[in-house]
Amino acid sequence: MQNLDSLIRNQKMIISVYGLGNVGGPIAAAWLRKGAKVIGIDISDKLLSEIRSSTSHIKEPFVSDTFTKSLKDRQLILTTNGIDASKNSHVKIIAVPVAFSNKKINFNALISATKNITAGIKKGDAVVICPSLPPGTTEKIVLPIIEKSGLKVERDFYLIYNPERIFEGRALQDIEENYPAIVAGFSKKSLKFGESLLKIISKKGVLTISSISTAEAEKLFEGIYRDVNIAIANELAIFCQSNNIDYWEARKAANSQPYCHLHYPGTGVGGLCIPVYPRFIINSAKKTGKHMHMIESARKMNDNMPIQCVNDALKLVKNNASKKKIAILGLGFRGDVTDSRLSPTYTVVKEFIKKGWSVSIHDPFIDMDEQLPKNILLSKNLYSVVENATLIFISTDHKIYSKLDEKSFKNAKKPLLVFDGRNILDKSKFKNSVVYTVGMS
Questions:
Q1: Which residues pair with 359 in a beta bridge?
Q2: To 10 degrees, what angle do helices 277-287 and 293-317 make?
């Protein structure tokens, strides 16, 4: 255990990372920056090509640069062959996504990565699981697959759960500096190995958890806390709209009290984290006959916000528009990210289409998307998106939008009508326009 750091730095203990996306990419980079030899595995030839051409993970500082240097130094090996990677590595890190769609949890990527690892696992190896999971997943799904190899956990290999704790756009910094690493092991040996391992890359140290299922739950609780509090903000914002109250002013004053932490309301909650984690807990609870009433209510509130915002935006038009064209600003699920997965903008688009509107979308980071109908314009060119628009709808809080003014929409129809779903505009720059903000009457 004492030599673990030197074994990794001297590249005598090789690390493999399964999945090089938004989570696995930064994890692999963190180990490379500590001098480790890393085998990166991903099923996407496109992603591997982007890594080789230095065009991957553009919005994650230092990740792409780290990959480029490490490939040149032969410190990083890229492959789609997970079995060979397992045979040639000692620490196997699983960083593939576990998704929730059609009311079901999709473990396919996790199971596939685990099977590949099992085909090449050796005595003394360690398996580290990083995705956010329903409590019990590691021990009920992952462990039985690995033990089909004939090896036994604790006796022959280590099993560790280390949930990712990253915020897109600063992932590497979060791994290395911002938070302690959460670590749980199947039993004492695995926990001790995991603690020694994660201390190498985590400057804030390691917070050990007594059981894997508790650690799995902890990670979900982080996201559920935010989801429920965003729902409270959304509900209070709707109340304020109907009662001549400025939510944002009330929020600022309320949050001056140290026990109050009101969040931002807005067009909805997206990404593969906050909208998904409550579903994991809700589903797990139902299996034991329990209902998570507050969590379920919060999910319904946040899921409904895109529809609420569309209806509020349409009040600006009052059905007087002869040619109804909506310019939606922002496809990313959150400001300044290139990721649109589960973005509330998709629901916004569907609602406007249902109501007979022509839709165009601007995003400074995204100009291609297969989920959108083919007849919708998606562009990084704001001028072309807002041309002849009856209504402007800000859906995502990209920082660039905070710099917009009336001149930015000079080719939109007049009077200029703007629904600010993120309270990102400087209202003083729109003196001759109608601007409506979530949470303001």
A1: 326
A2: 140
